[in-house]
Design a protein that fits this description.
By secondary structure, this protein is of the alpha+beta class. 22% of the residues lie in helices and 34% in strands. Helix 4 packs across helix 5. The longest helix has 26 residues, at 99-124.
Length: 419
């Protein structure tokens, strides 16, 4: 019945199959569920229901009740009844007591069938499969401008691949951002709507045979109103004030966006070569404020992202009552606020929030309003820092930002850091 529930929600939303949804789609669904039921399901929970994260074998009745209520049913039992099903309770029986033996036999059979399939597949192939060599392929690229959005021209040679092989170009780390190209062609182009540091890949029959870096910088600070379709780019005069950088509610009004009724995310980007600044020795300090606390964006979320070659350090802020929904990530390690006390990332945005992220002596320490909020271990494989992103739910202001290492200042905003 859970599959029917998922299918019913996909039909109601008309967004296509959930296997193709982006993270933002799941965020939007979480928002719609809260708007309709006044009950919240996290993005992580929704992804697990859809099998896009670690699948929940037996979701809680509370979760199924909320999803059923979103569809207009009283609860999960009501959905099941409406769709001709029944909720069964497990009962101890001779079969149940023998289940371990049954599962063991099934496991043996499954392994045997799998081995047989592999054996048949490899033995029936007339010629052995020879892995592709990276040296047999060409893959380069060049951006066509110094602005955002930015088109990139890819030049490739995939003639070494088998005839009728699937040739794809992947724009970044996200495997969903692949597009197929003709094996006999040599030029393909695509567009990047956000600045950043990307790993482009040439993929042959699902195997990455060549990859290289693509750097899409900003000229200065770039202000963006994020949307599921194309982002709205703001002019420098729209975000630059005498004492801060800000994307205000008046700017949203000018674009007919009401953050009180729809989830609204705005971003400040600065992507550039910061010189000799690496993940093992840097300090970022910032003074900022979420300026919107009404309606659907009342949690006043803020997300700070430090981009480095091949990854990102991401940590959040929010209203104190919303920290259960937070998560952070650094060096491939993620931390879920559902399982970890992230209450120190909760702040009172009636005042400006002070943020520090310091990497030294093998540790990355995040401090919020002079209190240590979390510490990560820094890998020995150091990476170059290449960009900053600050996102606000609703609207927000950046009053000061300093990025440096032990010896040099890489960047500092021109505003006085007044509290």
């Amino acid at each position: 019945m859970r599959e029917q529930l998922v299918a019913a929600i996909e039909k109601k939303l008309d967004w296509g199959t959930g296997q193709q949804w982006t993270n933002r789609d799941f965020e939007e669904l979480s928002t719609l569920i809260f708007k309709n039921t006044q009950k919240r399901l996290s993005v992580t929970t929704l992804k697990r229901i859809w099998g896009r994260a670690e699948l929940i074998a037996n979701p809680s009745t509370a979760t199924l009740d909320i999803l059923s209520e979103f569809l207009g049913h009283t609860n999960w039992r009501g959905f099941v009844k409406q769709n001709g099903g029944a909720i069964y309770q497990k009962k101890k029986s001779p079969f149940f007591l023998r289940s371990n033996i049954v599962y063991a036999i099934l496991g043996i059979l499954t392994v045997g069938l799998l081995f047989g399939f592999i054996w048949r597949t490899t033995s029936s192939t007339e010629e052995p499969v020879v892995p592709y060599s990276s040296e047999d392929f060409l893959f380069t690229s060049r951006p066509v401008s110094n602005d955002i959005p930015n088109s990139v021209v890819f030049e490739y040679d995939a003639s070494a691949a088998e005839e009728d092989a699937s040739i794809e170009i992947q724009q970044s780390w996200d495997q969903r951002k692949r597009f197929r190209v003709n094996q006999k062609d040599s030029i393909a182009t695509c567009i990047y709507y956000h600045p950043g540091f990307f790993k482009a890949k040439l993929v042959v029959d699902g195997t990455v045979v060549k990859e290289h870096d693509i750097f899409i910088p900003t000229q200065d600070w770039l202000g963006v109103i994020e949307r599921d379709t194309l982002p709205i780019y703001l002019k420098p005069k729209d975000i630059l004030n005498k004492d801060r950088l800000a994307i205000s509610s008046s700017i949203l009004d000018a674009h007919s966006i009401d953050p009180s009724t729809s989830r609204t995310v705005v971003g400040l980007y600065r992507v550039q070569d910061f010189g000799e600044l690496y993940t093992n020795d840097f300090e970022l300090s910032a003074l900022l404020k979420n300026d919107y606390d009404q309606g659907i964006n009342a949690c006043q979320g803020v997300q700070i992202t430090i981009l480095y070659d091949g990854g990102a350090i991401i940590f959040p802020l929010s209203d104190k009552g919303c920290t259960s929904e937070l998560s952070l990530m650094a060096f491939g390690q993620s931390v879920d606020g559902k399982k970890t006390d992230l209450s120190r990332f909760g702040v009172d945005f009636d005042e400006k929030a002070s943020v520090r992220c310091v990497s030294k002596d093998g540790k990355l320490q995040i401090t919020i309003n002079e209190q240590v909020a979390y510490t990560f271990k820094v890998p020995k494989d150091i990476k170059k820092i290449v960009g900053l992103q600050i996102h606000f739910e609703g609207a927000g202001s950046l009053y000061h930002l300093l990025l440096k290492n032990k010896t040099n200042v890489a960047y500092e905003t021109p505003f006085e850091p007044l509290l």
